[in-house]
Amino acid sequence: MKIMVDFEECLKDSPRFRATIEEVEGDVCELESKLDKLVKLCIGMIDAGKAYNAANKQFVNGIRELAQQSTKDEVIESSLTKFAESLQEMINYHTILFDQAQRSIKTQLQLFVKDDIRKFKDAKKHFDKVSEEKEAALIKNAQAPRNKQHEVEEATNILTATRKCFRHIVLDYVLQINVLQSKRRSEILKSMLSFMYAHLTFFHQGYDLFSELQPLMKHLGGQLDQLVVDAAKEKRDMEQKHSTIQQKAALQDFSNDDTKLEYNVDADNGIAMEGYLFKRASNAFKTWNRRWFSIQNNQLVYQKKFKDNPTVVVEDLRLCTVKHCEDIERRFCFEVVSPTKSCMMQADSEKLRQAWIKAVQNSIATAFRDKGEDAEKLDRKSSTSTGSLDSGGETKERSLKGETALQRVLVIPGNSCCCDCGQPDPRWASINLGITLCIQCSGIHRSLGVHFSKVRSLTLDTWEPELLKLMCELGNKVINQIYEARREELGARKPNPGDPRHEVEAYIKAKYVDRRFVQRPTDDQLRSKVVSLSKQEKRLSSSSDHMPRAPPPTPKLRPGSNSSGQTVKSADSGIQNSSDESREMPPQAPSASNNSLGEAGRDASHGAQAPVLGGADTPPMAMPSTLPPPSPCKDVSFYEPKEYSPGLQLFWASCARSLPDMAEALAHGGEVNWVNTDDEKRTPLIMAVHGGSLVTCEFLLQNGSSVNQQDAQGRGPLHHATMLGHTGQVCLFLKRGANQNAADIDEKTPLSIAVDAANADIVTLLRLAKMNEEMREAEGPYSQSGDETYQDIFQDFSHMASNDPEKLNRYQAYDHQKP
């Protein structure tokens, strides 16, 4: 029941006001009880949903295993695989639904109870206290004797002060009551509406998914009758074949004859003859073992098991002889002798021994007759003299939400319309691509898989500050310049709003999966881009306003050659300084992305913050000018590589903090975990750490970069961020699952490095993350995200790292803390 208290009535402190207050207090207590119950029920629902999803995942994995086991039956394999994919997508939809339930019901209502109702209770305590004081003052004033003037004055003064205080407190109390009554409606309805919209999205997605699956189900249902008929026919055929083989086996048993073996040099599989033989070992015990022998490609080989690679006994039968062995105790033995060794074998019968001897002799004769052709075959097989004859080993391939995030993302150029079809007012985004999408295109993107596109709602989901900043640094215009560079040249039509879904889906797959419209760079263009990016970090660092940082990668050519192939002196010899090296590098015209970064650098140099940051969003801390620039790791140097690749472009773009160039490198096929073997096996993510940009690290992580991949020194990104004192990056890596227990080759963990450097912020983050991890392990697999203190502290650090990075610049780099 909605109860509003009148402000003027409260000053009278009438019985009607007191009755109203009592009714309000009872209503609030009941409201708190109902909300607590609803939150607990929501938690129980979420836990049950997670358990359901876990069991459902196991069931889907069972379907996949059954499909993999049925690879020889294309109908079963393809159908089960498609069903498993659809069911897995429904599990994903359920997960999103439960996540939204936690955000909209649990989190929002708990916040309402903890903040608003707690304020009401605090105001009630003050009101009750001042009410008692007022009653005491009234009683004392009434009891003051007429003839004792000083007592009268004292009681009057106390009553006046108490009444004044009472009016102040009661007005605040009534204000808190009215605000609570007004806010409860919006908070409850907002929470439930968000939850219901999540259900709406869930059922829409499920309907779309099974609408696409329905034709396959109908087609398969139409095939079932024929499949039943075919199965019955196959059963009759197999029963007939079984009977025939059984009769033949009975005749062989009756005649006591062996299976007929024939030598066939023209066999389709290249095996002229095969069967079981006993082989005498060459060890001291001369043991006999039963093995599967075969003659193939003029070689004698055997296998212990079918899956084992064949072991070659004789490489070239032309150099061998075969003979009976009658001078040993065992029967039916024969020997194959080569110039280097001999092999004693035993057949199961005399007829089998004669068949094998004849087969070996015929193989020798055939080898001599076709000497030229067989010699060529021998050359091809010589590399397998001690191993396999069959290659058979081929490799088989919390934060900002709602309108705040929406408004900040939509102001980026091109983001006011869907990136793929142009639908106005998009409400979804692909966070790893940095684009906005309409609801139809978001569903298609989600069907591509998270390795291509990760979809999130701009209105329903919670946005972390670094992720929102990432969205603001890319945008539809930048990405379309990359992924649609050749669209007009190829004559491809971009979909319009309202086009059939299958046309939009075909275009999106061609754009992001096949990357059909991406302009592939020439070798010269790629080389120019890489060299330009390798210099860009130095330009950006020099534009900062006297703020020392980790040394930028200094371009160095490999001793002995420059970019044009001319001989130059080694950079390590001390004869050629850095300015000489820079003159050796060919001048490059800045690209569009370089220009944007240059603008960001100029903004930083004048103390202004660019709306789209292209520079370091977590610059290192200021240090005394007497200290050299921090250098915790070996200097990153640019060497003339053996070849220029998109991976190398991604490597240097990560250091230069150029997100457009990074997105371009990924579009050109650059591996996100590419390893630079010329630079201590560092990865783009490690280079992003040295570049100092939190957004660059977030971009790589969202695109699948490994947060624990180590360099040649055994240091992962968390090591480098700790050594450089980049607190924001440390916070980010810990949130993304970095292993803080990993040690480098010097047995240093990130925590020991932070302790040596006396970096209290990073030590606090590492220890909190460790404690939170231990709490989660103790609570079990279905525990919540961890301690609230941990979440609050990490949220504060995330906000500081993204919005006020200078507050984190309080410590020097690791090396300069050492004596």
UniProtKB/TrEMBL annotation:
Residues 375-399, 519-629, 796-819 are annotated as: Disordered. ANK repeats lie at residues 680-712, 713-745. Residues 560-579 have a biased composition (Polar residues). Gene3D superfamilies: Ankyrin repeat-containing domain, Arf GTPase activating protein, Arfaptin homology (AH) domain/BAR domain, Pleckstrin-homology domain (PH domain)/Phosphotyrosine-binding domain (PTB). It is found in: Cell membrane; Endosome membrane. GO terms for molecular function: GTPase activator activity; zinc ion binding. Residues 804-819 have a biased composition (Basic and acidic residues). InterPro entries: ACAP1/2/3-like, AH/BAR_dom_sf, Ankyrin_rpt, Ankyrin_rpt-contain_sf, ARFGAP/RecO, ArfGAP_dom, ArfGAP_dom_sf, BAR_dom. It is a peripheral membrane protein. Signal peptide: none annotated. Residues 383-392 have a biased composition (Low complexity). GO terms for cellular component: endosome membrane; plasma membrane. Residues 270-365 form the PH domain. Keywords: ANK repeat, Cell membrane, Coiled coil, Endosome, GTPase activation, Membrane, Metal-binding, Repeat, Zinc, Zinc-finger. GAP activity stimulated by phosphatidylinositol 4,5-bisphosphate (PIP2) and phosphatidic acid. Residues 403-525 form the Arf-GAP domain. SUPFAM superfamilies: Ankyrin repeat, ArfGap/RecO-like zinc finger, BAR/IMD domain-like, PH domain-like. Its main location: membrane. PH domain binds phospholipids including phosphatidic acid, phosphatidylinositol 3-phosphate, phosphatidylinositol 3,5-bisphosphate (PIP2) and phosphatidylinositol 3,4,5-trisphosphate (PIP3). May mediate protein binding to PIP2 or PIP3 containing membranes. GTPase-activating protein for the ADP ribosylation factor family. PANTHER family: ARF-GAP WITH COILED-COIL, ANK REPEAT AND PH DOMAIN-CONTAINING PROTEIN 2, CENTAURIN/ARF. This is Arf-GAP with coiled-coil, ANK repeat and PH domain-containing protein. It comes from Knipowitschia caucasica (Caucasian dwarf goby).
